[in-house]
Sequence to fold (150 residues):
Amino acid sequence: MALQNSKKINKPAISGSQRGVCLFDEVAIAVAAAFVVADNLIGAIYLPAGHKLVSGRVIATDLDTDETPEVALSVGILNADGDDLVANQDFLTASDVAQAGGVAEFDGAGGLGLAVSAEDRIIAVKFDTGAATPAAGTLTMQIVTAAVAS
Fold:
């Protein structure tokens, strides 16, 4: 298991100061072929303190060029140890979006109803299944958050 952080994780989280103000944030992450391995994680973008996630999506290039691609990824909140996603706080589960490239909207299995936190949290991508034939490419994450009353 390895953790790669995007350029957004090394900067302070953006936030809105007024209740109900929606913010859009986006990050494109270069993914090396050798990183498309089961259980690897990418710390992608912050969910700012005092904000709820309204919507999000992952846009992927083809990270598995095999005739029968296997790569699958999930998106959720990175745990405090930085070694897995927090259980039942997932926005996307076992998506095949990186098998041929495309867009996957967060379906919110457990995460879109996530309680607001006083702390910034990291939204991360986890490779549930590695690629049969890994290829370098890009994962882009886009999120919309809303400030809520404290």
About this structure: The chain has a mean pLDDT of 88. The chain is about 0% helix and 50% strand.
